[in-house]
Structure formats: structure tokens, C-alpha cells
Design goal:
4 copies of one chain form a homotetramer. Helix content of chain A is 42%, strand content 9%. The first copy, chain A, is built from 18 helices and 8 strands. The first copy, chain A, folds into 2 domains: 315 residues, TIM Barrel (Alpha-Beta Barrel); 70 residues, no CATH class. Chain A is an alpha/beta fold. In chain A, 64% of the residues are buried. In chain A, helix 10 links the parallel strand 4 and strand 5. In chain A, helix 7 packs across helix 9, helix 9 crosses helix 10 and helix 12 runs parallel beside helix 13. In chain A, strands 1-8-7-6-5-4-3-2 form an 8-stranded parallel sheet. Chain A starts with 6 loop residues before the first helix and ends with a helix. The first copy, chain A, is globular. Chains in contact: A-B, A-C, A-D, B-C, B-D, C-D. The interface between A and B is large, with 102 and 102 residues.
Chain lengths: 399, 399, 399, 399
């Protein structure tokens, strides 16, 4: 294991391909609950989590990220969640880490332990309290010998800095990505400034993940790159966007879209969108290229195939996927065989089959963030009265 | 195992839930190649096929259909396919049957062996030749003790009758579904007449599968039901449609849509569409309710949840899915918690995020069918000259 | 004047081109009020009505139809309308007839007096009462020497028959068109049967007008033609559809669409749609080809230009309109000059510039018709209580 | 005439309402040819031009702008145009001025003489040459006693400055508006800087017209306002946008959209859009509020009705238009009467009835401007070879 090249060495050599989003894909497969986004699946449905790791490995992922999204202890006991009590933060993070390591060893992949923003910060708790939450996860990652650490899905640069600092208490390589778009963080800090502060806090790799589609995310990356260059900083850049088209999302991204999370199907990117994404990301100088919510194995495979020349290899899964639709040469219908060419798929403007639906949505725009009382953590379940009240607030905002 | 209730007994008691489509889902997971739709995955990627069976079992499927789509011998050697030679029809069908039986035993599911239309028919070969193809598969299904047989995905009622007759050479219960819409089969036979002929040929269960979305398919079912009633026939009805919206597909269904098969994402149905589908199918009197291409485990779960009352149980997978978005009560953002109610999701008209794309497409309209030379089976790969010629024909038709 | 060829003679020689809709165009120019669709504009704003006649004459119309839509006496006193009392049915119809005659004489156009369905019928009044309403208008048309009569915009074949019978009390040629689509009249009579009954009642020309777009209307015409042929009848066919795309309208047409009447802009047909309409109508055998609501002068000009070869002449207005965009050869921008060709405009799929709007709407579906109390005529204005009650009914139907 | 209040006095008192676009509306009525946009209609079709003036006066316009768009002499002889030779710049401008004055006197409207960018500038001719073109028009405006002058539809601030300077050789009030959006002029000068330079060149009123929809135009106005404030300048602001939705237009506006000029129908704004536009313009501080291409009389009426309170009067045409659909209270159908309220129309999201068309288009993006050889003026007609060459260039850019 020690002979394997580390992340930074690989990034220096060429593009590193991340994996796709676990919570959305496992929700569709039936093993994760939307809302709490239950990371305890690594304990309760180990086979399902392992299968998804294998799917991504086969698709070309160079990194097996332990499935630990929202697995801080404060999140595991928030709003009626029982996982913190019945299973516990240590057991979940450890099981996830072991799974990642097991599958990574089946290929030549790196392992990764990730932490995300936590309810304690949104509730306005202290820096020490927030860091304490992270240390519980990081301790496991170190003990389970994850190759590097990632602070991802942060909406506030301040909390991100605390998270990076906590990671830097170890000797691991640290990557950092915020779930922001070109408009910057929720406190009004620009994308460029966020990038500079992530790098200065010690991140070796910086970028964005989640919340926006590949193309909106690359706009944010472009601003980050400009900010870093102006500051004379040179971290690697990473991008792990949604696989959902979000030209209409506001500052807070797809969470604000009315389709989130159970009506996003019509927004799912095609594999051809991902070819375009991979190429544009690479040309912008991004070297850690992966995906987040909505990315399925075939999306990652498309990224790996687009960059096959740069990487000197096709992903293992290309044995069941011919580039640019060439497999259709074996279709029984001649007019489908006629589609077995790159030009056809590059030019296609896919229809939605939904003539009563529009192209864009007006996002919910609550405009509240850290410190607002409505965001405070609470241990008890949300009551039906609270839901009714929130629904009324929402209706009023829409009127 | 003998104590288990058979298909007809179950259908008499209430709705039986089928599974979803294997070829499209396994293609996205990375184990099946689009074009030849390689059923040999049961041999080459056993774990992946088993995982998908388990996902559907957990989602509520009462039937584990062996993954044998397009696994006739003539298909396995068509247009450069090597699977017939290197693996063979017996081995593929047997491995698939065993997998279905293995997972079915983990629940209380029935096993099913299915046959589909074959290139020999399209090429204009004789009834005996076509039946001989089917017998190679059916022999395995009998030896592997599949609970019942299904003739599915037939575009011509004539070939369907041959297939049913071949199945009836065994003593198995036989179900039959054509991949047609309200306009009927490719030779101009109405949907109503197709239903009558399937029933008269001996099918105990008749209906449609694939090629059209749930709502277009139910229109076809309605015509079938009327035809059967007029003829005094009473088979059970089955429906296993696409999970893609296809209001714009022509007579030959989604294969004619320009998005087939690599640009269909924007057409994917939501879980709420499936609630509606399950309710409408049940009210029409359909008792075998499942899905085909595009149906993922969560779509089947939605069908099972909608019919939970009629079936007296929720699917196992509902432990990770609260009805009508109730799990969102645990979301950190208040405006997402406000979506934790049925009315919100029933009313949602999801946007596509694709402002440069239309709602509907003009289908390719080649209008060729059985007997046309361009449909003839050939053992050799399609050449690039042939593709260029087909592409030119397509461009001309579009102009 | 007597030397002019009459309608039937012209129809025998080739296509006769009608005019476009007066109420919608005059509403946009500022001289007609939407709701009562005030035909008294011929008295109060004579110049504006004359100008529109001239625009249509120049565009190629062969017929100047007196602006007498909804000018029965019962309509002029319905729901707070004062025109019946202050001006009177005789004066309005007479002024309109004179204007039509004046402008017709400036070209070689025919004059036409038209009657439409009246509130008395919807209110359930007797045949005699309804006929009496029509006689007041027809008397004026005869005295003002209109060349022929038209019964148009009828939703019920029964009332249409009464109207034709009343017209047949004169010796004028009678044309008849219903505002129905392929689904037939409001009492469930098929389009084919409606056509047969119009012809049998004595109409020399039969067809449809208003309520549906050109292409839906031609579907209705096709059914009418089949019905007439089956019955061995040979009247001329006429079509005067909307210039609004209505693929989503229900049985009652565009009135049911939520955009009616103040939000229809996005549905307006282009001139190229009208070329297509004129060609398809002509090929179906329709010989009286015009328009209704939404048709502006340039739409009629497009019809006249498409049929220029069949008619042996271009309309006068073509001096300011080169066919298929050729005038763009004089545009300053080269990329606009590149659009100066037929292929460009025939292939164009125009975008709406409205990414938050859908392609299709769900029509209001009240399903009430003649005899329903809510449709009864009343002399007094609608009260705000009534509006509130209707709005509540509508909201309930939408929920 | 001398007792009438002048423009600046009126602007100080409250909003002044402009008129709508003559070329597009007269093209649809049949009197102007698209491409050369023939201003000679004032000579050849005097009645039609007069009618449109009256329509706008009745709709609430405070200004009758002489129809002199593109009536410089160099434009009248460009690319095969014969109007310069057969009629002449003096005669056209004089006839148009007289018509404006005639109709203005029927109300209390001001008269306006306008000049626009000319081919000589695009062709790279000298400042003196360009100014000489403008002086030919301005001389007529002075002799015909137009109340004020307007330099409108300029894409380059440099040419605009030359135009303003030429106007300032008279003692007339001068207004100035560029056909630019938030991205600024074709030479890369920002909208803010353009505003400052217009004001410094002597314009009393500055703003934008044409090329973009009301809401994109107001974004440009906002930038202009900020620039002016930063420079300590206080001219009045004016806005005369398109009545076509153009969220997808590039820097050069709707001319680049593939729908220009014969496929723009689906983009036409509703009257409710214009209420919103008028309110937002007023709140931004814009005091000269009118329209350009696509604005029909009812659009201007909507602006006048929205600002009725601020202006202390409704337009004359409101006698045939009840606010917010109230006239529908007189409709025969109850479900249409239910639409007689403001909330209904404010909330309506109108569908296009075009399910095969998208919401947005990719604009042509030739990126050439002043000085480019392809933009040079030429007296001879464009040849078919040139069109073929341009079409090939266009196809290549699209591929």
C-alpha cells in the first residue's frame, strides 16, 4: 500500500477523477433516507454501499471517499435522528472508512475521509464546539489510515477555515471545496476570496462541490482561479458539481429549487454534458474532477472517457461502453444504428417529454443563514405544527 | 418452496408488483452495453446483476425476472456479437435463472423466465425457425424451475402468437405483453385485437411493456380491456411501461425518439408520476403492475407504496423512505422542511433546467418493419460505410 | 357592381381568401372592448374600422365582412351592455355594412353579412325567439345589399340549423361555419354530422371558424369532409381558424385556455405557419380560406402569397413584402442578410423567450353548456359578488 | 402651439409616455418592408401612417415622433434601395414631420424629429461625412418646427456623440438613446460610460431604446443611472425597449436572435408585462417611458394605465379597456368572467402552445462591428452569390 502514489503526486501528473454522489444514488437504490441522508447505511446496508463503491471504481474513479456525509455527531442526533444514539459517530465513520479501503484496494484508488458543515455552526455555537465535532470524525480517518482528508460542502468560509485548521492538526493532505456558486458564500464573501482563504488556511486543493451544475460551478471556479492568481497562490483546483442542470438556482443552489430533492429528474445531465464538463474543467486547469449529488457511475465514466488521452487509459468500465454511442452499431433498428456517431450526440438538444412543465423554476428565496433562529439545531422531531407554519411562510413568499 | 402461492393465485388476491428494467439500469451502473444490451452480464458481472435483483426485491417487487432480455441465440450472434459463440445461449439463460431464484428465495418472490422477439422473425424466417430459437431458452427455464413464463417485447402479434404457443408446450403459466401503444402493432393490428389474440393463444395474463410511458401505455391497456370484454375473454391485465415521458413518440415508441437511448434523462418520471401510474393502473383493473426501461428501484417502491393499502403491506425499502416526502421534516433548511407534505409534491410541475431544449421531439419515422431488407439479421459487424449511409438516410428524412 | 362574380362562381374558379379577425385586432388598436367585443365601433370609431378593412383588402382578402360580430340585440343588452339601448341593433349593423361595401368597392371584393350564436339560445329560449334575433340583422344585410350571408361561430348544431334556415328566408348564398374542433359540438354531435346537417339545412359553403389553431381546425375539416362524402353531399369547404397555437385546448377551444383573452401573445402564429396552413387547407380541398381571432393583415397576406400561383396573382400588399424573407437582402447586418431564404424560415423553430413558462396549459374545464343556469342571459352587470363566487369555483376546479 | 408645455417642463412634472415602434407595426399592417424598413411610407401610404399615430395618441402617447427611422440619405440608397433617388430624403422627412404635427394637434402631444445611426459610420467614413448626413434630416425638423430632437438607435457611443453635437447646432432640446444592453456598446464602452458621454455631449435626456426587452433594458438603465450619479450628472432618463422577451440575446440584442425579424411572435410581451415594466421604470427614476419595435398601441395603453395615478389621468383609449381585465365581467362564459380580476392576470404564466419549440435560442454571434468590410455600405443590391456565401458562413458558425 505504501508504494502507491499520493494525491499530490497524482495531481502533478494529470487529472485525478473523483467519484459521484452517494446520498442521492443510494436513496434511489433504496438504502438512504432523504432528509437526514442517513450515512449509517455503511453499517445497516453494507453490501449496497460496497456495490456503489465498486461501480464508481469501475467507472474510473481514482478516489474512494468513505461514505460519511453529514456524519458529525450533532447531525446524527438532530431533529429526531436516532442514529447518533443507536449506532454512534465512531462506528459509522469507521465502517465507512473500512469499506472505502476495501474497495480501493481492488484497484489503485486512494482513500478519502471527508467532513462537512455541521448544525452546531448554523446554530451559532463556538469555534471550539464546532472543531470538537470534526475531531470525532478525523480521529477515525487517521486510525483507519485514509490517504487524505476533504472538507466539503461548506456554505460559510468561516466554518470552512475552522474545518481546515482541524484537519491540519493531522499530517494528512487536505482538500477543501465549498458548496457555493459564482455569487460566493452565504455571508457575502466572494468566490475569489473564499478560494484565497481556503488556500491560506492550509488546503492543498481547493474548489467547489454540490449545489450547482457543472457549468455554473466552473464559472465559480474561474473566479476562484482569478482570485488565487491575484494573490499569488497555487493550490490545485477541484470541482465536484451536481449532475442536475441549475441555470435558475439562486445563491443557495439547488436546495432552493422547488424540485429539490424529489422532482429533479428532468434536470439530470446526460453523459454528453459530462464530456463537455470534463473538457472545460480540464482546460480551465482543474485537476481534481469528480461529481456530487446526481452523478451516477455512467457520468463518472463519461468524465474518464473524455480525459482518456490525458490520463493514458480508459476506465475498466469502458469494456461495456463504446465511445460516442458506437455500441449502437449493433442495434437491430437501422435508424438507431444511424445514431452511432459523435456528431449526433454532440448536437442533440434533448426534449423533456413534459409539455406542461417549464424550463426554469423560481427558487425559494428565504435568505436566512447562520445564526437565524429558524436554523437552530434541535434534538426533537419537527412537529406537524411547525411544518404547517413553514408551509404557510412558503406560500406567503410565493404569493 | 412448493408452499408458495403461484402467480394466478396472487393475482386473484390483489395487485402483483413486477420489477424494473435491467438493461438500462445496468447500463448506467456500468455492466451492460447499449446496442446489444448484453444479457451475458449474469455470467460476466454476477454481483452487479444480483445487487439489482436485491434492490428491486427490497423496493417491493413480487417477481424476480431472470435477466435474459435479447438472449436468444440468433441475437447473441447478430451484427458482430460474440456472446453466442464465447458464452452461449444455455449458459447465459441458466446463470440468469439461478440468480433470479437465489434472490427470490431471500423474500417471497416468484421467479420468471422471459423471451422476447428475435431477429429471425424480423428477417422473415419461418415459424419453425423462430420457435426453435425460443425453445432453447424455455428449456433452461423449465430445468431451472422458473415459476412462470413471459413473452414480452413483441412488436408483431404474429410472432407473439408463435412465442405463446411455444411456451404452452410446457405446463407453466404464461404471461404476454407487447411493446405497443394505443395505435397497435407494427403490421396494423389494433391493440384490442392484439389482446384478444394473445388471450386466445393461451396467455393467462396479457398487456403491454416498454416503448411508451405509463400514461400512454394505460391508454393502450384501456383499448385492450375493451377488446377483451367485447370478446368475452377475461385474462389478467399487466402493464410494465417505460419510466420515460413519451407523449411525442410515434407508433414505434421511444426507439424512434431522437433521444434514444443516450439522451433520455430529461424524460425520466418522478416517484410522484409512479404513484399516479399505480393508482390509475389499479383503477383500470390492471393487476400485474411493474416497469420496464428506466424504472429504477425507487420507481417500483413508489408503486408498492401507492398500493400498500390494497396489498396490506409496505415494501421492505420503506424503512428508508417516508411517504410523500415526510422524511424532509429532518432536513436542516426550514424551506425544505416546508415541502414535507403530499400536496406539495402532487402539485409540483418540475422544470427541466434546459431552456434551450424543447418539450417534445419529432420522432424518426422510418416506417419499415418485418421483412424489410434493412432489418435483416447479419452476423458481421455493421461497417462504417453502412453507418454513413444510414446517417445520410436519416438526414434526408429530417430535411 | 352587378358585373362582379359572385361567391360560388369564384369558389369554382379557385381559392377565395377571407379576412382576419376584427375584434382582437381592433382591441389591440384600442377601439373594441374585450368581453362585450363591442361591434358599435363601426359607429363610434368608423375610421379605425375602415382602416382595418383596407389593411385586409391590401393583404389579399376577397371578402369584406361587415363588422357585426355579437351584434344581435340580445347580446347588445346583456350583462350591463348599453349599446343596444344607446345605439341600437339596426344602426350598428347598417354602419358596419356600409363600411364593408365602401372598402370592397376600392378593390374587387365581395361583401358579407354575418350572424353568430346569441345569448337567447344559451339561455334556453325558443326557436322562434332565437330566429327573431337573427332576422333583425339579416334585414339590414339585405337592405344594404351584402353579396352573401354567413352563419359563423356556433357551438351547437341545433342553433346553427335555425340560423341557416333564417338566412334561407332570403335569396342570398349562405355560408356556415361552426367554432368546433375535431371533437364536435357542445352537445356531443360529431364534426362529420355537423357538416352534414349544415349542408342539409341549406348552406352552400360549410366549415369551421375560430376556437382552434389552423392545424387543429384542419383536422376538424377533414372529419367534416369525410362525413359529407359519406352522405353524398358536395358543399364548398371553408376554414377561418385562430392565429393562436392551441394544441392543448379542450373541446371548447381557446376560451378555456387560461391565457384567453389577455395572455395569448406567445401563441401567435408566424407568417410561415400561415404558408403551411394555406397549403394544407388547399390540398385538403378547402376553397374558402381565411382567418379569425388573432389573424392580422400580414397573416392573410401570407395565405395569399402561398396561393399566388393557384390564384394567378399576388396581393397588392406584396409590393411591401418579398416572399420568404427576401427583403432581408437589404438589411445592414450580414448575418441577417444570410436569413434571406426560404429554407431558413421553413426550418426555424421559434423560441418564446419565456423560460419560466411552459409549452402547454391545462384548459379550464367547466363542462357546462346550453341550458345551464350559469349561462343565462341577464340585463344587469355582473356583480363583484358573482365574480368572487366564480373565482372560488375556478380555484376549486384547479385544485 | 406656443402655450404648450415643452418636454423638459413635462418631465419635471411627471412621467412622459412615448409611442411604440412604427416599422414593425406598419410591416404587419402591410405598409413597410422588412429589411430596408421603408420610411417612405409617409409619402406612399400616408393614411396608414396617420392611423398608427392616432392609435398611439389614443393609447396615451405624449409624443408623436415623425416616422423617419433610417431616413438618412445614405441609407435610402443602400443595397439597391431606390427611395433616395425616387423620393428623396427631404420629401420623406418633411412628409413624416407634417403627419406627426397634424396628429399631435389632435391631442396635446409634442412632436419629435429623430435621427439614427447611418451606414456611413459603419462603413468607416469621416466625422464630417456622417454629420452631413444628419444635417439633411435636422434641417427639415427645424423647418417643420418639431418640438424636440432625438438621437436614437446608436450602437457606438462615438457616432452618438457626433449625432448629439449635430443636433446641438440647433436650439432644440435633445434626447439621446442607444440600442445597447447592460454589456454596453459595440466597441466595448460600458453602459455607464455611454450615459456619461451622452450627457456630456449635451443630451438633456439619455437612455436606451430597441434591441432588448423591457427588463434587460432596465438593467442597462440602472447601470447608466449609477454612472451618471458617480459623475455628478443629472439628465432625465428615458427607456423605449422592445416588446419582445429577449433574455437570451447576446450583446447585439434581438437582431442576433435567429427569430429576427419574421419569427418573433412567441416573444411578444403581454399588457401585463408592460404594467410591470412601467412600474419598475418609474421606480428606477425613468421619466420618459415608451417603446420601440413590437410595441403596439395596447402596450402603450398599458403603460399609461399603470401610471394613471402618477399622471393624474387615464389615456383616452381606456374608454374601451377596463383595468386588469374587468371588461370580462361582460363575457358570456362564466369561467371567463372569473378571470376579471388583477390577481389572475398578474399570476398568469402564459404557455406558448409550441411544444416542439424551446424557451431560449442561441444568438448568432458574428462579432463584427464598425470598420469590418462585411458591413460596408454598397449601392448595388445584394447578389444571390453573396447571400449563399453569408449562409455558408452562418452554417459554419452554428456547427
Amino acid at each position: 500500500m505504501t508504494a502507491r502514489k499520493g494525491l499530490l503526486e497524482r495531481l502533478r501528473e494529470g487529472p485525478v477523477i473523483g467519484d459521484g454522489g452517494f446520498v442521492f444514488q443510494l436513496e434511489k437504490r433504496g438504502y438512504v433516507k432523504a432528509g437526514p441522508w442517513t450515512p449509517e447505511a455503511s453499517v445497516t446496508h453494507t453490501d449496497a454501499v460496497r456495490s456503489l463503491h465498486r461501480d464508481f471504481l469501475r467507472a474510473g474513479s481514482d478516489v474512494m471517499q468513505a461514505f460519511t456525509f453529514y456524519a458529525t455527531e450533532d447531525k446524527l442526533v438532530n431533529r429526531g435522528n436516532k442514529a447518533g444514539e443507536t449506532i454512534g459517530v465512531d462506528k459509522i465513520n469507521r465502517a465507512s472508512s473500512k469499506l472505502a479501503r476495501e474497495v480501493a484496494a481492488e484497484g489503485d484508488a486512494l482513500t478519502l475521509g471527508g467532513i462537512s458543515q455541521c448544525p452546531s455552526y448554523l446554530s451559532g455555537m463556538s469555534k471550539d464546539d464546532v472543531k470538537a465535532e470534526y475531531r470525532k470524525q478525523i480521529k477515525v480517518f487517521v486510525e483507519e489510515e485514509m490517504d487524505f482528508l476533504l472538507c466539503e460542502y461548506f456554505e460559510h468560509i468561516e466554518e470552512m477555515e475552522w474545518a481546515i485548521e482541524t484537519c491540519k492538526e493531522t499530517d494528512k493532505v487536505v482538500a477543501a471545496s465549498m458548496c457555493i456558486g459564482p455569487e460566493g458564500d452565504m455571508h457575502g464573501v466572494s468566490a475569489a476570496e473564499c478560494a484565497v482563504r481556503m488556500a491560506r488556511a492550509g488546503a492543498d486543493v481547493v474548489g467547489v462541490n454540490c449545489h450547482f451544475d457543472p457549468f455554473v460551478s466552473l464559472e465559480a471556479l474561474k473566479k476562484m482561479k482569478e482570485g488565487l492568481e491575484a494573490a499569488g497562490l497555487k493550490p490545485f483546483l477541484m470541482c465536484q458539481p451536481l449532475a442536475y442542470h441549475t441555470p435558475d438556482a439562486g445563491k443557495q443552489g439547488f436546495i432552493d429549487l422547488p424540485e429539490f430533492p424529489f422532482g429533479l429528474e428532468a434536470r439530470i445531465c446526460t453523459r454528453w454534458d459530462m464530456h463537455k464538463y470534463a473538457r472545460e474543467a480540464y482546460e480551465l486547469g482543474v485537476r481534481y474532477i469528480g461529481g456530487c449529488c446526481g452523478f451516477e457511475p455512467y457520468h463518472i465514466r463519461a468524465v474518464a472517457e473524455e480525459l482518456a488521452k490525458e490520463r493514458g487509459r480508459f476506465p475498466p468500465g469502458s469494456d461495456m461502453h463504446d465511445a460516442w454511442g458506437k455500441g449502437l452499431e449493433m442495434h437491430t433498428k437501422p435508424w438507431v444504428r444511424a445514431r452511432a456517431n459523435r456528431e449526433y450526440w454532440e448536437k442533440l438538444m434533448p426534449a423533456s417529454g413534459r409539455p406542461y412543465c417549464s424550463s426554469m423554476s423560481c427558487p425559494d428565496n428565504w435568505g436566512v443563514t447562520q445564526g437565524d433562529s429558524v436554523l437552530k439545531q434541535q434534538a426533537t422531531s419537527t412537529s406537524s405544527e411547525e411544518i404547517a407554519k413553514l408551509k404557510a411562510m412558503q406560500d406567503q413568499k410565493k404569493a
